[in-house]
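Issue 218. Parser rejects a valid record. Input:
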Amino acid sequence: MVSKTVYLGGPISGLTYEEATGWRNEVTNKLRQYGIKGLSPLRAEVYLRNHEGLLNDYQQPHELEKAGCQILAMSTQRGVVERDKFDATRCGVLLVNLVGTKRISIGTMIEIGWASEHNIPIVLVIEDSGNLHDHAFVRECCGFRTPHLVEAVEIVRAILGDH
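Output the parser choked on:
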């Protein structure tokens, strides 16, 4: 049976907490009404909300402690990679939002690879042209492409929703 979850991939590094979570919360709320669960890579890291700049690079436990954060294994490099790999390989659909990105998101590219390897449908939200991520590997791994997040939500709904 296909999982009725959608993993919400996209850049985090270099963004504020609100920039990284805003669109994810919006999509999660929209899909919830159709019985589809959104998985955010930041779902266990609400404490980062007040620590601007922490989303620039993955922190080691001693760096988090110096910044006044509770030390959580999920915030370390290993914790982030393990959780994201688990999510990207168990979801029913991977939705990747790359619109407006200012720098390459290596983690998101790897998540696309993981999902592709597991034959998980990938819905890509990206501009028609000019995005830093517009590359043959991304184009060929993603079965659905749209420049609009609203349309991406409808594609996810069509794939995972009750018909």
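Fixed in the parser; the record now loads. Helices lie at 17-32, 61-66, 77-90, 106-117, 136-141, 149-160.
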